[in-house]
Amino acid sequence: MLLHALVAFAAVAEAAPTLLRFGCSQVVIDRIDPLVNPDSAPSPHLHQVVGGNVFNVSMPSTDISNLASCTTCSYADDFSNYWTANMYFRARNGSYKRVPQVPNRLLFGDKFTTQTTGGFVVYYVSPGKGGVNAFKPGFRMLVGDANQREKRTDMKSQTCFRCFSGPNFRGDDAAPCQDRTLDTQALPKAPCLGGIRSNILYPTCWDGKNLDSPDHKSHVAYPTAGPALFTGSNIGNGCPATHPVKIPQVMLEIVWDTTAFNSKADWPADGSQPLYLSTGDNTGYGQHGDYVFGWKGDSLQKALDGGCTGASCAGLPVLTNEQAAKCKVPARVSEKWDGCKSFALRVPWWVGDTDRLQGWISYLEIPRAWRRSRDCI
């Protein structure tokens, strides 16, 4: 986060924008997706999830906050769930190892965020009191496309990877997705000395009617001028007539500790980029984020209207790291998702009833019964 920009933002106190920034520890890692693949266990790919303990193979379109009993987020009233793909490193010998997530940097005196277990940071931005409408119970949305493998120039400010140039978040000198050198839509093609940060931003306009849509996207939209840059105080102007209701800008921020995988001796012999999302994507263009709203009562609206900064706002209750860490969700799919495994095995594959193919296929695409573990690098 650009520090001097935040100072400037704080200086325009008369505008009283709200910038919520708070950490959430992992609540579960599991191969389910109640938004895109409800009632499917396993779902096509693995996710890492934060938030409330209602997360399950399916989630009812109702007030989630009435069903949850705990959350891994620092704001005690946020029982929402946020989830993304995991990241893996593919070594020269063909083995894969999950890239760990680490706590984000200290900002606004928020020590909770610097002590989370896995998980990531969530942002909500409002231009000021009455500037946006909080989401309604049952609301959910998806941004990004797990199957995307080509660059989309219209999304360059909405999904990116920052390649930190050194330890302690070195290179964090521009707002997310706005550093022309360190931010890329694709996964970085060279070792990042300080790890990698993912940023995923959601649309800021709503049709005012539908809490969801068949593709989980059509009920929301970007401003008529295009997706808004992340400024911490503005969410863009002019929603389209089809989606006239302004909603807060939500952003997910994940820090991946890739430093253990920086040795070129472990990278593929051809020097190709060795990081993969758990969708099987090694481009990074398939980065995406799922969201199911679950704030209690009118707590989010109070915060959005409160002119607050960081993880303390409008008198809303907050948790300690110890309290948040007690919140867990049991995995619904039994799978060894950590450590090392081979994502490519020579196995028979049938297409239809007659066409038999023999060859290398992705671990993420083969039946789970055919998967085998493999030694680490």
Automatic annotation (TrEMBL):
Protein keywords: Signal
Pfam families according to UniProt: DUF1996 (PF09362)
Signal peptide annotation: 1-15
Superkingdom, taxonomy of origin: Eukaryota
DUF1996 domain segment(s): 33-295
Protein known as: DUF1996 domain-containing protein
Species for this entry: Lasiosphaeris hirsuta
